[in-house]
Amino acid sequence: MTDPVTARLFAALEAAGGQGCVRFVGGCVRDVLMGREADRPDIDLAVALTPDRVQQAVEAAGLSVHPTGLAHGVVTVAHAGRVFEVASLRRDVATDGRRAVVAYTQDWREDAARRDFRLNALYANLAGEIFDPTGAGVADAHAGRIVFVGDPTTRIREDYLRSLRFFRFFAWYGRGDPDPVALAAIANETQGLQALSVERVAKELLKLFTAPDPRCAVQAARETGVLAKLAPEFQTFERFDRLVARDGEVLGSVDPLIRLTALLPSDSLAVQAMARRLRLSTAEQDRMTASVARELALTSATPQADLRRAIWRHGAQAVRDGLMLALADAQAPIDAVAWQEAFTYPEGWTPPPFPITGDDILAAGATPGPEVGAVRRAVEAWWLAEDFPGEQAAAIRVARAAISRLQGG
């Protein structure tokens, strides 16, 4: 709030709209009130100016403008490493559960009335003075309450993603039990979730699973019928709970993609189908599918030689992911130190280069074509069984023996 770029942007907007026309809004205000570190990549501002006037004022001040969301009343300002999302005050004219038609206003209460939760409908000026149009946002932030602005059903019908956002915000900011009025409204509106794009659902789920401990939120989402509507494949909740209870302790971090996988049966086809349905990236789909490969079968007691072989065949990431799912399956109590050692091993071991090439195999007498691949597989089986010996001469001897067998010698 005290950054010179922030002050420069406030000055530019107030020069166009008058003193007090711009305020911080939403997450940055909420996080300060809740004593959370400000690690947000951008800062949200609300302004009593139309988007075209915002753009003119910012350009006149020599700041970089990106009209990324003009249709929704949002202008992005980027300068000196700072990014601001500047949204014009607005009210909803019409909504369809996914998008809203808006009209611009200069009424801060109208703008607050269209926001999702009371602790997100908070504003602050450059001096840090808080404006709380709902009259309950500050109290909610201090108490860790996630409560919809106004009527929950109305808010949900404006954008059905808000049902999922409720659980995500409860996981990150909630304390105590979730608001029963909100839960009842969410349970009555699950049919509307089918209108959401799978991309928005996937993004919201992964944000939920990134919370340090989303177990209570996930349980509430399950009890309201939200998870069954979105992903009936989510079945292994006890496994998910065990992973969440342990991953922070063992790893010191969380991985939302593997938490998502932990909710699914350990079947590569089922996992792949879910990843595709959520339209995750190809890399994410491949990673989820590889993590449940049956041939991994790893635990904290897996010998390091077996870990090395698994890393060679599947890669370090797949081995770590497989260990994480094994951690979720392990029955209590666990040896946290042993699991930590297993998890860190793939980071510290780099597979050596394969000792021979295709040309070496041909020089040893192999017939060009499929025989080269068969010989390479024979050498690889020996190499792995012997724990990656580096002697090329020994590998060539194995290759020649394999060639002799294949050629009937």
Q: SSE order in H/E notation?
A: HEHEHEEEEEHEEHHHHHHHHHHHHHHHHH
Percent range of helical residues: 40-55%
CATH architecture classification of the largest domain: 2-Layer Sandwich
* CATH level-3 fold name of the largest domain: Beta Polymerase, domain 2
The rounded Rg comes to 28 Å
From the helix content, strand content and strand pairing, which structural class follows? alpha+beta
CATH homologous superfamily annotation of the largest domain: Beta Polymerase, domain 2
What's the overall average pLDDT, rounded? 92
Biggest sheet strand line-up: 3-4-5-2-1-8-9
Question: What's the total count of β strands?
Answer: 9
- Molecular shape: elongated
Give me the number of helical elements. Answer: 21
As an assembly, this protein is single chain
Question: What this model shows, in words?
Answer:
Helix 1 (4-17) crosses helix 3 (51-60) and helix 13 crosses helix 17 (316-329). The model has no long low-confidence stretch (mean pLDDT 92). The chain is built from 21 helices and 9 strands. It has helices spanning 4-17, 27-33, 51-60, 108-113, 137-143, 152-158, 161-173, 180-188, 198-210, 215-223, 226-230, 237-251, 256-262, 268-277, 282-291, 304-314, 316-329, 336-348, 358-363, 370-385, 392-406, and strands at residues 22-25, 43-47, 64-69, 74-79, 82-88, 90-95, 100-104, 123-124, 130-131. The strands form 2 sheets. The protein has a 7-stranded mixed β-sheet. The protein has 4 domains: 1-143, Beta Polymerase, domain 2, CATH 3.30.460.10; 148-230, cca-adding enzyme, domain 2 (Orthogonal Bundle); 234-351, no CATH class; 358-406, no CATH class. It is 53% helix and 11% strand. The chain is α+β, with helices and mostly antiparallel strands and 409 residues long.
